[in-house]
Amino acid sequence: MKLYGFWRSLATYRVRVALALKGVDAPEVSVNLLQGAQHKDDYKSVNPQSVVPALVVDDGAPLFQSLAILEYLEETHPQPPLLPRDPRGRARVRGLALVVACDAHPLIVPRIRSYLEREMHLDEAARNRWLQHWTLLALETLEAHLSRERETGRYCHGDAPTMADICLAGQVLAAGYFDVATRSVPTVERIFAECMKIEAFERSQPLKQPDAPKKPSH
By CB neighbour count within 10 A (0-12 exposed, 13-18 middle, 19+ buried), where does 97 fall? Predict the structure, then answer.
């Protein structure tokens, strides 16, 4: 098994955490998004969309899209579970995860930032407002659910981490990237702190990866 990713990629972070939680070894191949390595032919043959992550599990086609990879890992390595057993709980966890992975994160990835600058001619200040707006909006949406729904426990759903927590943790890390204050989302902050007590979450952080720069800039 082999994971194609990048230190700063929050989608790769999700997969990294899931692999670590489930005790699955997948050496990571760095695809430097900032240098355009994702657009080279050798990587496009792995993932034609030119994004990370991609997971190679056998001699078949690589798996792509972080949540699809998490679902694959859940089905092939069911312990510890990242989804509840009941259908309603599974739907809730997936919904919370999708708030981040489908509605928020796609708006702040490098290819969007590049388009805003090069095609829309936004200056750095305007671009940063865009990034901060969508990052915080997702956290506020999570807070609205987590602070009032009885299914919330130590983590997003009960007292064990799920896919929702993996996505929440990545979104809080995004807030750190873009200097977004999280004081307005105390439940999110609490759950993030609980996640970071788990080695799989903590050691999967972007800045702890071998390809991370000593002095990163975002």
Answer: buried
